[in-house]
Amino acid sequence: MGRGFTGLRVTGERTWVLRGLPGSERLIEYEALAERVKELSCIGGLGELAMREDLSVPEILEASLEVIRSGWRCPDLVQVRIEFEGRAYTTPGFTESPWRKAAPLRRGGSEVGRVEVVYPDPPPEREPFLPEEAELLSDIAHRLSQLIELRHERDQLRHLNAVLRAIRNVNQLIVREREVGALIQKACGLLAETRGVASTR
């Protein structure tokens, strides 16, 4: 404390201390249950984000960082990075580390990114990641991959619908407009709007 540290945290495997004490098995069960609750809360939080139609995929990935972090045994000691289509989303102060675990993000069978959890400093345990945490990370990556796939398909469907509307509007324009120059200009305007770009005059 005298060196400017604000607190001290000691972690470790302590079931050997409790072994044989009356009621100790309940404490061990409680701690295991508490970890499962954290994992379920993490998955539930991701599910809530996935239902937010007002958020884009990048916004959801950004918001997912702290949700993912909360599912770990030592959330204050780990950092999270999500890489997707060449862009990285990270928790504040993210640093590379050899103590990490990653799972791929996939779309259409191809890898498009990954989710990574790291300990920037030497972890408190010899095995930094519990087997359950490895499973959790795979589950997180799978759920985010599903979200990415569904949003991609939704965007494609919206684009196709917009193209069909533009074709219909151009057909109606052909019937109404008799002047060739005006017809071409208006048709180009409709098609430009379909692509999401402003028409130039």
List its traits:
201 residues; alpha+beta; Beta-Lactamase; 4-stranded antiparallel β-sheet; 4 strands; elongated; disordered C terminus
Structure description:
This protein folds into two domains: 22-152, GAF domain (Beta-Lactamase), CATH 3.30.450; 155-194. Helix 2 packs parallel to helix 4 (131-176) and helix 4 (131-176) packs antiparallel against helix 5 (180-194). It has 201 residues and is an alpha+beta fold. The protein is built from five helices and four strands, in the order H-H-H-E-E-E-E-H-H. The radius of gyration is 26 Å and the shape is elongated. 53% of the residues lie in helices and 14% in strands. It has a four-stranded antiparallel beta sheet, with helices on one face.
Task: Tell me the name of the CATH homologous superfamily of the largest domain.
Answer: GAF domain
Mean pLDDT: 81
Largest sheet: number of strands, sense, barrel closure:
4 strands, antiparallel
> Could you name the CATH topology of the largest domain?
Beta-Lactamase
Q: Give the helix proportion (percent range).
A: 40-55%
- Highest CATH level, the class of the largest domain: Alpha Beta
Overall outline: elongated
Q: Which class of secondary structure composition applies to the elements?
A: alpha+beta
Report the portion of residues in β strands. Answer: 5-15%
